[in-house]
Design a protein that fits this description.
Length: 458
C-alpha cells in the first residue's frame, strides 16, 4: 500500500489531522502506539472551551479557540452537552465580582461563536438557591457562563471513523521507532507492533502529532521541537456528591484554589465528577507520569474551601501532560496556541511536519492548517472540508464567521509576551470602563434559578 502521508499519534490532534487529510482525498495512515485518545486527550478536563482565563494575557488565542470550537460544536453536536459553570466570588478573593463580571462581558461576544449563551450574575441569596451546599459565609455573589462537555475518547473515535469512511487507514498498538531518511527528506517510518514485529511503511510526508511525545518523535528525525510540559491531575468521583445538589440538571464550578492564584474546576457529567486540574511543570517522560500526594491534597483542600463536606475519598486520579509550545515567561502566562512546523524550511529536512501545542478545543483548525501544508508539499492542493460535514457525514449549513486573528500577529506577540499581555489587558481595561458606565441589562444582572433554566437548557 502506498500513502501520501503518515500521521504519528492517535490523540485528538492526530485524529483531526487524519480526518482533514482523508476528506481532502489524500491516502493516509495513522499510527498509534496505544489506544486512540487514551493519553493526554483522555486526561483533559473534557471541555470544549474558549479559554476564558487567557483573556488575561493572550486574547487572540481565546478568539481563535472560540472560533474553532464553534466549528467543533457544529460537526460534533451529538457528542457535546452544554455545561453551565458557576463562579462564586467571596470576600477577599483575588478577583472581585466586578472584575469577574467584566471578564465574562469580554468573553460573551467571543464565546457566542461557539453557541455560548450570555453570562448571568447572581446575588448571594440566588446563588445559594441554585447550590444550597455552597459555603455561604463571605459570599459576595456569583456569575454563570457556559462551555461544552465532551467525552474526549468518543470525540477521537468519531474523527477516526469519519476519516476511515473517507478512505484512511489506521494501525493501533504500533509504535513508530524510526524515521526513514534519504537525500535530505523523510521517506517513511519504521514501526514495531506489540508482538515485536517490525516493518517499514513508506510515504513522502510524515506528520508528528504525538502530543507530549513530539520531542521524542522529532529526535528520531534528528530535529528539535521544544515543548514545556505542564502536568495536570484530576480526581475522579464515580458517585453522587450530595453537596453539589442543585435544581439545575447539570452545573459545573470554577473555584479560586487554595493558593489563591489558580482556579480548579468541578465538572460533573454522566454520573462522574472531575475535580482539577493541577498545573505543574514537569521534565518527566510522558510514559511515566504520576500524580503527587501534594497535587491530590491541593485539589481536595481547594474544593473543600467551598463545600466543607466534599468527600475525601475519590475513585481514582488521572494525570496527563499539556504539550505546550516552548516559550519564555511564567507558567501562569503560557500561551496555549499551536504551531505547525514545516521542517523543510525550518531544518532543511523535507517531508516532515510537526503539529505542536494547541488544545482539544481547536483540534479541527490544527488539522486544517496541517492539511493546507501537506497539499502544498505534495503539490496536490485540495480544499479543507472538515467544517462542512458533521463527524457522521451530514452536511453542515454554511455560517458567516469572523476571520481568525492573523498568524503573523500571533507569532509576533509570542516573541513578546509582555506586549501580548498588554494587548489583552488593554482590551479588558476598555471593557471595565464599559462595565462601569454601561452595566449589563437587568435581565443579566439579576440571575434567578428560573432564568438559569431558561438560559442554559437546550
Ligand atoms: C490536565 C489537562 C486538562 C486539559 N483540559 C483541556 C480541556 O478541558 N479542553 C481542551 O481543549 N484541552 C484541554 N487540555 C489540553 C488537551 O488535552 C491537549 O492539548 C490534547 O489532548 C493533546 O492531544 P494530542 O493528540 O496532541 O496528544 P495525546 O492525546 O497525548 O496523543 C498523542 C498520541 O501519540 C501517541 N504516540 C506517541 N509517540 C508515538 C510513537 N512513537 N508512535 C505511535 N504513537 C505515538 C501516544 O500514544 C498518544 O496517544 C488539557 C490537558 C491536560 C493535561
Amino acid at each position: 500500500m502506498s500513502y501520501d502521508a503518515i500521521v504519528i499519534g492517535g490523540g485528538i490532534t492526530g485524529a483531526g489531522v487524519l480526518r482533514d487529510l482523508a476528506l481532502r482525498g489524500y491516502k493516509c495512515l495513522l499510527i498509534e502506539k496505544g489506544k486512540p485518545g487514551h493519553a493526554t486527550t483522555a486526561a483533559s478536563s473534557h471541555l470544549i472551551h474558549g479559554g476564558l482565563r487567557y483573556l488575561l494575557y493572550d486574547r487572540l488565542t481565546t478568539q481563535t479557540t472560540c472560533w474553532d470550537s464553534g466549528h467543533i460544536v457544529r460537526i460534533a453536536r451529538p457528542l457535546l452537552t452544554r455545561l453551565p459553570i458557576l463562579w462564586p466570588v467571596y470576600r477577599g478573593h483575588r478577583h472581585g465580582l466586578e472584575t469577574v463580571e467584566t471578564l465574562l462581558e469580554s468573553y460573551d461576544p467571543l464565546q457566542r461563536m461557539k453557541g455560548g449563551r450570555p453570562h448571568l450574575r447572581f446575588s448571594p441569596e440566588e446563588a445559594l438557591r441554585l447550590v444550597p451546599g455552597l459555603k455561604s459565609e463571605g459570599l459576595r455573589g456569583a456569575v454563570v457562563f457556559d462551555e461544552w462537555w465532551v467525552d474526549p475518547v468518543a470525540l477521537v473515535e468519531a474523527n477516526l471513523a469519519s476519516a476511515r469512511r473517507a478512505g484512511a487507514d489506521m494501525r493501533t498498538e504500533t509504535k513508530v521507532v524510526g524515521l526513514r531518511r534519504a537525500r535530505g527528506s523523510v521517506q517513511g517510518v519504521d514501526v514495531s507492533s506489540t508482538d515485536g514485529k517490525r516493518e517499514e511503511v513508506a510515504a513522502p510526508i510524515v506528520i508528528n502529532a504525538a502530543g507530549p511525545w513530539v520531542e521524542s518523535v522529532a529526535d528520531l528525525a534528528g530535529t528539535r521541537v521544544p515543548l514545556r510540559l505542564q502536568k495536570g491531575t484530576h480526581l475522579v468521583y464515580e458517585k453522587d456528591i450530595p453537596s453539589l445538589k442543585s435544581p439545575a440538571p447539570v452545573l459545573g464550578f470554577i473555584l479560586e484554589a487554595e493558593d489563591r492564584s489558580r482556579y480548579v474546576f468541578v465538572i460533573p457529567a454522566r454520573g462522574t465528577t472531575l475535580v482539577g486540574p493541577t498545573d505543574v511543570a514537569t521534565l518527566d517522560n510522558p510514559d511515566h507520569l504520576s500524580s503527587s500526594e501534594e497535587e491530590k491534597r491541593y485539589l481536595l483542600a481547594s474544593v473543600r474551601r467551598y463545600f466543607a463536606d466534599f468527600p475525601e475519598s475519590y475513585d481514582r486520579a488521572v494525570v496527563g501532560a499539556r504539550p505546550i509550545l516552548g516559550q519564555e515567561g511564567s507558567e501562569k502566562r503560557l500561551s496555549r496556541e499551536f504551531e505547525i512546523y514545516d521542517h523543510s524550511s525550518r531544518d532543511g529536512l523535507g517531508g516532515f511536519i510537526t503539529v505542536a501545542g494547541g488544545k482539544m478545543s481547536d483540534f479541527r483548525l490544527m488539522g486544517q492548517e496541517t492539511g493546507d501544508l501537506v497539499g502544498r508539499l505534495l503539490r496536490k492542493e485540495a480544499p479543507c472540508r472538515t467544517h462542512l460535514l458533521t463527524l457522521k457525514g451530514e452536511p453542515v449549513p454554511e455560517v458567516s464567521s469572523r476571520p481568525v486573528p492573523s498568524k503573523s500577529l500571533k507569532r509576533f506577540l509570542r516573541r513578546h509576551p509582555r506586549l501580548r499581555e498588554l494587548h489583552a489587558l488593554g482590551h479588558l481595561a476598555v471593557d471595565f470602563g464599559k462595565h462601569l458606565f454601561h452595566p449589563p441589562r437587568e435581565e443579566i444582572r439579576r440571575g434567578t434559578v428560573e432564568k438559569f433554566r431558561q438560559y442554559y437548557q437546550d
